[in-house]
Design goal:
The chain is α+β, with helices and mostly antiparallel strands. The chain has helices at about 20-25, 70, 95-110, 115-130, 205-220, 265-275, 290-300, 335-350; strands at about 10, 40-45, 50-55, 75, 80-85, 90-95, 140-150, 160-170, 185, 225-230, 235-240, 245-250, 255, 280-285, 300-310, 310-320, 325, 360. The longest helix has 16 residues, at about 205-220. The radius of gyration is 21 Å and the shape is globular. Bound molecules: pyridoxal-5'-phosphate and 2-OXO-4-methylpentanoic acid.
Length: about 350
Amino acid sequence: LAPRALTFSVTKNLAARSPQERDEILANPGFGKFFTDHMVDICWSEQGGWHRPRVQPYGPISLDPAAAVLHYGQEIFEGMKAYRHADGSIWTFRPEANAARMQRSARRLALPELPTDYFIESIKQLVAVDADWVPMADGTCLYLRPFMFAKEAFLGVRPAHKVAYYVIASPAGSYFSGGVAPVSIWLSAEYSRAAHGGTGAAKTGGNYAASLLAQQEAYDNGCDQVLFLDSREGKYVEELGGMNVVLVYKDGTLVTPDSKSILEGITRDSILQLAEDRGHKVERRNVSIDEWREGQASGDIVEAFACGTAAVITPIGLVKSNDFEIGSADAVAGELTMSLRQELTDIQYGRIEDRHGWLTRL
Ligand code: PLP
Ligand code: COI
């Protein structure tokens, strides 16, 4: 069906938290623990297309126990942030890129594509009603989580004919409890995140479900995140459970894995652009774990970092496996890592010019 303008109905939450309760939460939000007073949903059906856009009180979703998502995992999501600038205005970062990625994820998971203007409008609607939930303090923001799932009650295995799209929002500080201190990464020898030809490039729950046992193994080994290698040869660096990886070479070149089974991060793309603007060479290519190990030992690789919406840019201090270690847990954060982090967050928080036109006012 041709996209038509969507008019959202708005039902205010009569049980919304008081300003005092909200301020207490915003003073120490952590990550992903607290949610705002409202949520957005839009329905989709094969006959009716996208319809019934709503802003409604945040609360439980009622689902038929036979809803396909509960059985076959037909689900996708996005992650983005709303930032409060010094003048009080609220902005988000490259939302068209998240909309486009959600459309690619939808195609892979045989879900309907939500048009970009609906996606952006859904974010605007939620932030308009929950604007007071966008925190002020340095390094904090409102994390936005759009998601879509198959809600048709049918146990046959085929793309669902009824789908729901929602957006929820969660005030956020740092994803890692240590802030921007270098993190330790566990190299998963046994488990792959995504197969060749699989769903690795889509932002779908199944990829995260597949990462959880390996993530637990990482915690058990004293690490913060898990690093996955390619599923065919177990040789090439792919990404972390929830972040992309970038290596910095002695000559200033930034290298990041090129793979059809990783999530194409918008943070990574933006950082690489900023590095190119400064005259750094950027290579998107296969990087083996041996190259990383040998490069770090010889001094050819001088910095490594993880990046993603939740993690922003976080230095990687140590990579640990059953057989070897790269780097050290008490490494200091790399200079380029930290200056790119500073530049990216300065753009996001409106402290320097947005020369690429990445910000959208909400
Ligand atoms: N890789 C995975 C598996 C992720 O979950 C994320 C986070 O969204 C990323 C990479 C980074 O993507 P982005 O920078 O768009 O948040
Ligand atoms: C994000 O960065 O938005 C993600 O989805 C990653 C997850 C680890 C929270």
